[in-house]
């Protein structure tokens, strides 16, 4: 096709097949918007939130258990009501969501780094190394992720002295979820690596005498990252859910600095007494966030898969 | 086909076993389990209540807290001790006879170094055997309230203890395990069938009990299953999984009352909730300041003024508590209308007092709190964290199960802690000797006032009631001025009970199955 005039940068950007697919998929646009808003809201929580729920000096017990503002008895400064201690629900959700996203991202990064490294080594080196790594991954995949996370988390907490437990709880959770995540990444990367390893450019690199680690890092790794990105996005949603599950079971983030899962657990105690908003709003926030990230991951899988295009 | 057959067989089996369970089984729950089955190891409400279904004392209290004969039939005071006539023909669960020898042994055991009942038991200096069924409990001078002090000192079989190598109580603080921790051999209305700590304790009716036929209770089997999570506990009651919840969360009482076939009973409890502040150590363990601010009365007063007792009553306790300025409730000799009102709530004055004491910017400290013992214990602590933050004190909350919390207090390892105290004797001496005497085994505040110590000792032998009461009042006034504790409130008890069982609520929060009638 002939071009009358050179394409502007924007047009060239729009012409990119991934962007094209994105702009023609309303689901993806909605999901991305929600995810973006959620992430921005959580990152800038200290600026947006009307109160700082972690500052006990701002809490008044007399304001405890107030319903959302539009219900009789609610107060306008507490839009989504307050919890049993008088903390503003909207603020706790923003801060809690921040913690959830942070834990999710960190856990996925940990799982990704670990999985991709092991996957590339496994696929490139092959032989016994490959067999050992992949069998470990297989064994781990047979154990439900959440059980494994509870196990790692439990050991991590028991190993810490009591005084440090609360402080390090968040890192323990990140490690627990990250360690359960890596086999997915390892498997996908290994497959992609084996395909790439036989291509001419890799053989060329080998012939000119580059060391193995250099080939893996500079040549193979960049070409295996597309599928990893898809898994990472879906993995983020799963990691957020995993953190919420751990916290809901009382194994995760402590109530003094609550994540969404912790908020849902604390609120759960008040369901019978009709204070539904303490558990409902954090739960809705969690569902919307995870749903949006998941949709995004789904779209990315379709957009990046040449067979589906 | 095979599968259908199996179902048919299992249904038939169910129908056959159905009528067999027609015995009266009471299933109940509360948030925390008895800490041990050893009757002299832990002086703690739920532990005493659980053991009191298996073991018995010489004298007991009924659900109205009136003294009643149990293993003793009658008693009589003398100048140097009390004579108790023991009940005849009483047998322990293993079949051996209950005699004066067992009384001697039980008091020796309760006075052992590892016993947690020393403060009560040491009032009995020795036990004199008059005959097989008469004993004289010797006291150090006249003791006007001895029977009151005996209601939770349980009688054990000497032979059984010797045979199982449990002549000394379990050292709970040192996490010792002995035979008596999971096995029990008492004289009481129920025998221990099985015990899985924190999971399930099963008791069965003792057909050879001396009281058989004398009490209205008709329960054949008791299944006690502690459930930590409050919502789960209520769900269990609502779904009929349990017949009785000892401690439903206060916010759910309306829901339970509104449910078909369930009701709630409430009563003012003989238990006060308070915080202790350790003024005894030279340097606080968990604070960023040098020295110990709690040594200064002004700091202790500031803490008292910073806590909004009324807010805790209304929001945390749903109105079910009585804010107070004492650590012992009305109903106990020594609680007076003059001393009972709280110190009030005045954060501005509290801040000024802190500044005066040299801490204008406050300091940090850890608050040790149980999370499965008292009504809304952890939530009270969370509320206190926020209230103390407003006078500049940064509190780090450590809320843990009672089995780990209580040793911290008994080993005097806590700077700032929550504790609740019930009074089975209904007399202030019990409070003084455990919580205010410098040597008191549950006094982790380091409070050591010579006059209070002196009164604690004097009232054990003072038989002139007027003089004795005057001394008790004097001690309380001293305590009120010294403020070793931060009193919060007296608890109000609420029990959630299914209509198929008739249970009388008792102000000491102890369930007495011998009176419980299933319909």
TrEMBL record, chain A:
<dbReference type="InterPro" id="IPR035906">
    <property type="entry name" value="MetI-like_sf"/>
</dbReference>
<dbReference type="GO" id="GO:0055085">
    <property type="term" value="P:transmembrane transport"/>
</dbReference>
<feature type="domain" description="ABC transmembrane type-1">
    <location>
        <begin position="97"/>
        <end position="297"/>
    </location>
</feature>
<feature type="transmembrane region" description="Helical">
    <location>
        <begin position="28"/>
        <end position="49"/>
    </location>
</feature>
<dbReference type="Pfam" id="PF12911">
    <property type="entry name" value="OppC_N"/>
</dbReference>
<keyword id="KW-0472">Membrane</keyword>
<keyword id="KW-0813">Transport</keyword>
<feature type="transmembrane region" description="Helical">
    <location>
        <begin position="270"/>
        <end position="297"/>
    </location>
</feature>
<dbReference type="GO" id="GO:0005886">
    <property type="term" value="C:plasma membrane"/>
</dbReference>
<protein>
    <submittedName>
        <fullName>ABC transporter permease</fullName>
    </submittedName>
</protein>
<feature type="transmembrane region" description="Helical">
    <location>
        <begin position="132"/>
        <end position="156"/>
    </location>
</feature>
<keyword id="KW-1133">Transmembrane helix</keyword>
<dbReference type="InterPro" id="IPR025966">
    <property type="entry name" value="OppC_N"/>
</dbReference>
<feature type="transmembrane region" description="Helical">
    <location>
        <begin position="168"/>
        <end position="186"/>
    </location>
</feature>
<dbReference type="Pfam" id="PF00528">
    <property type="entry name" value="BPD_transp_1"/>
</dbReference>
<dbReference type="InterPro" id="IPR000515">
    <property type="entry name" value="MetI-like"/>
</dbReference>
<feature type="transmembrane region" description="Helical">
    <location>
        <begin position="201"/>
        <end position="221"/>
    </location>
</feature>
<keyword id="KW-0812">Transmembrane</keyword>
<comment type="similarity">
    <text>Belongs to the binding-protein-dependent transport system permease family.</text>
</comment>
<feature type="transmembrane region" description="Helical">
    <location>
        <begin position="99"/>
        <end position="126"/>
    </location>
</feature>
<feature type="transmembrane region" description="Helical">
    <location>
        <begin position="228"/>
        <end position="250"/>
    </location>
</feature>
<keyword id="KW-1003">Cell membrane</keyword>
UniProtKB/TrEMBL annotation, chain B:
<dbReference type="GO" id="GO:0015833">
    <property type="term" value="P:peptide transport"/>
</dbReference>
<comment type="similarity">
    <text>Belongs to the bacterial solute-binding protein 5 family.</text>
</comment>
<dbReference type="GO" id="GO:0043190">
    <property type="term" value="C:ATP-binding cassette (ABC) transporter complex"/>
</dbReference>
<feature type="domain" description="Solute-binding protein family 5">
    <location>
        <begin position="67"/>
        <end position="440"/>
    </location>
</feature>
<keyword id="KW-0813">Transport</keyword>
<dbReference type="InterPro" id="IPR039424">
    <property type="entry name" value="SBP_5"/>
</dbReference>
<dbReference type="GO" id="GO:0030288">
    <property type="term" value="C:outer membrane-bounded periplasmic space"/>
</dbReference>
<feature type="signal peptide">
    <location>
        <begin position="1"/>
        <end position="22"/>
    </location>
</feature>
<protein>
    <submittedName>
        <fullName>ABC transporter substrate-binding protein</fullName>
    </submittedName>
</protein>
<dbReference type="InterPro" id="IPR030678">
    <property type="entry name" value="Peptide/Ni-bd"/>
</dbReference>
<keyword id="KW-0732">Signal</keyword>
<dbReference type="GO" id="GO:1904680">
    <property type="term" value="F:peptide transmembrane transporter activity"/>
</dbReference>
<dbReference type="InterPro" id="IPR000914">
    <property type="entry name" value="SBP_5_dom"/>
</dbReference>
<dbReference type="Pfam" id="PF00496">
    <property type="entry name" value="SBP_bac_5"/>
</dbReference>
């Amino acid at each position: 096709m002939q071009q009358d005039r050179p394409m502007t940068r924007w047009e060239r950007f729009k012409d990119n097949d991934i962007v094209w697919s994105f702009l023609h998929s309303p689901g993806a646009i909605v999901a991305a918007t929600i995810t973006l808003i959620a992430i921005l809201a959580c990152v800038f929580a200290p600026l947006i939130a009307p109160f700082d729920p972690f500052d006990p000096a701002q809490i008044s017990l007399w304001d405890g258990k107030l319903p959302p503002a539009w219900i009789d008895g609610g107060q306008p400064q507490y839009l989504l009501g307050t919890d049993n201690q008088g903390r503003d629900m909207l603020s706790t959700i923003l801060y809690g969501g921040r913690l959830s996203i942070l834990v999710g991202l960190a856990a996925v990064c940990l799982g990704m780094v670990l999985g991709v490294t092991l996957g590339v080594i496994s696929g490139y080196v092959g032989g016994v190394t490959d067999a050992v790594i992949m069998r470990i991954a297989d064994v781990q995949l047979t154990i439900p992720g959440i059980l494994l996370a509870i196990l790692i988390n439990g050991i991590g907490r028991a190993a810490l002295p009591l005084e440090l437990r609360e402080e390090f709880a968040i890192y323990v959770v990140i490690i627990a979820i990250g360690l359960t995540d890596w086999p997915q990444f390892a498997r996908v990367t290994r497959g992609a690596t084996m395909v790439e390893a036989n291509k001419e450019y890799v053989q060329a690199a080998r012939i000119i005498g580059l060391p193995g680690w250099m080939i893996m890092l500079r040549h193979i790794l960049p070409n295996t990252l597309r599928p990893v990105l898809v898994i990472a996005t879906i993995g983020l949603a799963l990691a957020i859910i995993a953190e919420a599950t751990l916290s809901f079971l009382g194994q995760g983030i402590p109530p003094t600095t609550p994540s969404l899962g912790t908020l849902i657990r604390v609120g759960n105690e008040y369901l019978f007494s009709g204070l539904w908003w303490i558990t409902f709003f954090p739960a809705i926030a969690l569902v919307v966030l995870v749903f949006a990230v998941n949709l995004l991951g789904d779209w990315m899988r379709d957009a990046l898969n040449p067979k589906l295009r | 086909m095979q599968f259908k057959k199996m179902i048919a067989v299992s249904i038939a089996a169910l129908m056959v076993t159905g009528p067999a369970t027609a015995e009266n089984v009471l299933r109940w729950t509360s948030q925390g389990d008895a800490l041990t089955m050893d009757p002299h190891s832990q002086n703690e409400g739920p532990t005493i209540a659980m053991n009191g279904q298996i073991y018995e004392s010489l004298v007991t209290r009924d659900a109205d807290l009136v003294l009643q004969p149990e293993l003793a039939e009658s008693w009589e005071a003398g100048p140097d001790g009390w004579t108790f006539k023991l009940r005849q023909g009483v047998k322990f669960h293993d079949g051996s006879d209950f005699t004066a020898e067992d009384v001697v042994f039980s008091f020796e055991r309760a006075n052992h170094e590892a016993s947690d009942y020393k403060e009560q038991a040491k009032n009995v200096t020795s036990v004199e055997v008059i005959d097989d069924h008469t004993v004289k409990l010797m006291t150090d001078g006249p003791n006007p309230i001895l029977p009151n002090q005996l209601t939770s000192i349980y009688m054990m079989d000497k032979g059984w203890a010797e045979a199982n190598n449990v002549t000394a109580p379990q050292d709970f603080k040192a996490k010792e395990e002995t035979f008596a921790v999971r096995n029990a051999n008492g004289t009481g209305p129920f025998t221990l069938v099985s015990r899985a700590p924190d999971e399930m304790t099963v008791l069965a009716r003792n057909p050879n009990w001396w009281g058989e036929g004398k009490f209205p209770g008709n329960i054949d089997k008791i299944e006690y299953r502690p459930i930590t999570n409050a919502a789960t506990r209520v769900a269990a009651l609502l779904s009929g999984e349990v017949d009785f919840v000892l401690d439903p969360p206060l916010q759910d009482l309306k829901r339970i009352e509104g449910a078909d076939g369930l009701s709630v009973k409430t009563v003012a409890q003989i238990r006060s909730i308070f915080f202790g502040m350790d003024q005894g150590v030279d340097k606080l363990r968990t604070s960023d300041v040098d020295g110990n601010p709690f040594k200064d009365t002004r700091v202790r007063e500031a803490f008292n003024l910073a806590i909004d007792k009324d807010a805790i009553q209304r929001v945390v306790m749903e109105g079910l508590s009585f804010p107070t300025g004492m650590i012992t409730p009305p109903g106990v000799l020594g609680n007076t209308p003059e001393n009972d009102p709280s110190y009030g709530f005045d954060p501005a004055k509290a801040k000024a007092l802190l500044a005066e004491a040299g801490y204008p910017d406050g300091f940090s400290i850890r608050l040790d709190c149980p999370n499965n013992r008292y009504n809304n214990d952890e939530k009270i602590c969370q509320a206190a964290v926020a209230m103390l933050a407003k006078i500049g004190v940064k509190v780090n909350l450590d809320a843990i199960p009672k089995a780990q919390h209580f040793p911290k207090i008994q080993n005097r390892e806590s700077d700032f802690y929550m504790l609740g105290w019930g009074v089975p004797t209904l007399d202030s001496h019990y409070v003084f000797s455990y919580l205010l005497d410098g040597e008191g085994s549950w006094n982790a505040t380091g409070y050591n006032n010579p006059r209070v110590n002196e009164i604690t000792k004097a009232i054990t032998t003072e038989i002139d009631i007027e003089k004795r009461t005057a001394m008790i009042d004097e001690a309380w006034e001293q305590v009120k001025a010294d403020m070793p504790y931060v009193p919060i409130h007296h608890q109000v008890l609420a029990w959630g009970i299914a209509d198929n069982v008739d249970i009388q609520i008792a102000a000491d929060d102890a369930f007495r199955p011998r009176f419980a009638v299933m319909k």
